[in-house]
Amino acid sequence: MRALMISEPGGLETLSIAATTPPRPGRCQVLIRVEFAGLNFTDVLARRGAPGYADGWPFVPGMEVAGIVEAIGEEVDGLRVGERAVAFTYNGGGLAEYAIADAVLTCSIPDELDSAQAATIPLTWATAIGLVRRSHIGDGGTALVTSATGGVGQALASLLARHGVTRVVAASRAGKTAVAGTVPIVRDDRLTARAIEANEGQRFDAVFESIGGDTLASTLDALAPGGVLISYGAAAGQPDPEPPRYRTLRGQNVAISGFSILAMARTEPAAVRDLISSVIRLTAKGLVIPDPHQVSWSGLIASHLDQSEGVLRGKTVLAVKAHAS
Amino acid sequence: MRALMISEPGGLETLSIAATTPPRPGRCQVLIRVEFAGLNFTDVLARRGAPGYADGWPFVPGMEVAGIVEAIGEEVDGLRVGERAVAFTYNGGGLAEYAIADAVLTCSIPDELDSAQAATIPLTWATAIGLVRRSHIGDGGTALVTSATGGVGQALASLLARHGVTRVVAASRAGKTAVAGTVPIVRDDRLTARAIEANEGQRFDAVFESIGGDTLASTLDALAPGGVLISYGAAAGQPDPEPPRYRTLRGQNVAISGFSILAMARTEPAAVRDLISSVIRLTAKGLVIPDPHQVSWSGLIASHLDQSEGVLRGKTVLAVKAHAS
């Protein structure tokens, strides 16, 4: 089968579309014939050798897939061969023609849901709904999303708007956003001041932060009393800043939180399954998941590069059976 | 009028029951003829000269009172002379026969509510309900309270039990607790292990921490994924520990939060008023506020000493008109 293969930690020269043997499902696992696989920044982190992403080399990246259940391992209930399913393949392997997934992280796709859209649920949309829940933001709250152009950022902004949040300020390098109803601002070294200005001079009930480094350090000041800053990534590649002292948290009545769906999948997979199921249920209640941009095998490495450079806008999936583009 | 007076930052020798002139209410303030005034650890911090508690010397401590509205300043709506009211006197002055309060932090007492009980609402019970809300703990959650013998700790444990929390593990030096339905444990250097053991081997959705220092540092490990540790005091007088790194928060999917009703009163008094009102409303719905222990003027300094030493159990109020005990 074809798969995107990373030979060893390094640059783009380590990437190739390789022919390899399809894996076989073990106990509590399923084999999925992949139709669509989401591209994510975690693929880039794996290729760069960041700790906790690749469990060995060569490594096939790809953490979210939609396709057909091809085979079922022992002790798997509730899934049958031939049905469509999405899976969070948190050990990678998704950017391939066949992928192994834990059954607990595999959910059936309802007939009404398109497979390409569904492929963006297990990591991207599940992360977004997990972030909204973690923030406990409610009706009338205000939120700042510091990186609103990527897949998670756009999903997050959409869910927040749907959640009754009064104002979502969405930052990006270009100051543009694809999500209706959000207030776009430019992300530069004046981000916090720009964000507060865009929020009519008010600080925020929730800040969703995935850039890290200086951005993470500065947006702490964007929190209103009672607010929470959730760090869920460090895309800039800078070291984390010093966290605020407990005294500061008390004096400002604020909280800082960390969110990693990858860590969650390893320690409490049932909680991640619940996030995936929740998104699927929301699609039956009117949540519209945008059609992702599709790339074929021939465009995959270029898209991975765009992801790496932070210029991949919106959500992109590999269409396994697409004709060469 | 009589008042507990602290002449300057220092030890018990700085305390006296002094005769002084009753204050006059300014704009947006009321004068309250105090019937009962709560004793709190903030009185001790003020006397020790901790920053942010006393705004000048000599200083009259006391942050929560119940009594009769004696006079009303300009621009005060919704309160009338002669009615019973509670107030959060966050600039101190409560342990006196008359106290000035901001009108926004003064709430009428319903007929059904006893003044001695009501005197424990503005700081103690308002803090407790603020902590419960900040934690976002819900039905079926589990909570650890690291200091369950003081006024806030007992109020917190009661509210958590009322809130549908499955298990409240309540730590104290002696390993006893006055709150029905909680699981008492001893607070020593094995606190976190004891707490998890008392919670059937599970970590907690919320940890409420007011001891600080080593206790604050160690109880971070008591958090379950998705859990929050709220620091709301540092009674041990130790420096705050280093907060966890953002990487740790992400990897463990946990949050740390700070809560200070004093800071909240200064920056968002309407939010504190809402907490006070919420507790008053809950008493009409069956919340039972325990009768506080009452001391007279002659016992006040001894009780302040007990508070300072951490041996004042439960909630104590000054009964202004009590006969000498």
Describe the structure in your own words.
2 copies of one chain form a homodimer. With about 325 residues, chain A is α/β, with parallel strands linked by helices. Chain A has 2 domains: about 150 residues, Quinone Oxidoreductase, Chain A, domain 1, CATH 3.90.180.10; about 140 residues, NAD(P)-binding Rossmann-like Domain (Rossmann fold, 3-Layer(aba) Sandwich), CATH 3.40.50. Chain A has 10 helices and 15 strands. In chain A, strands 3, 4, 5, 6, 7, 14 and 15 form a 7-stranded mixed beta sheet that branches. Chain A has a 6-stranded parallel beta sheet with strand order 10-9-8-11-12-13, sandwiched between helices. Chain A has a two-stranded antiparallel sheet with strand order 1-2. In chain A, α10 links the parallel β14 and β15. The model of chain A has no long low-confidence stretch (mean pLDDT about 95). The interface between A and B is large, with 36 and 36 residues. β13 of chain A pairs antiparallel with β13 of chain B.
